[in-house]
Amino acid sequence: MDDYFLDNGRGKTIKGRAFVAKDPKVNIVFMTGMCEHATRYWQLGKFLNEKGISLYVQDAPGQGLNIDEEKGKGPQEWTFNDFDDTVDFAYQKVEELKEATSLPTGIMGHSMGSFMTQRYLERHPGTASFVGIISSNGPCLAKMKVSFALASLLVNKRNWKKPSYFIQSMGLGAYSRAIKGAKTPLDWLSFNEENVKAYADDPLCGIRNTNGFWKEFLRGMSHLYEKKELRKISPDERILLLAGEGDPVGEFGKGVYRLRDMYRKLRVKEIKCIVYPNMRHEIINEKDNHLAYEEIANWALRSL
Question: pTM of whole model > 0.85?
Answer without folding.
Answer: yes
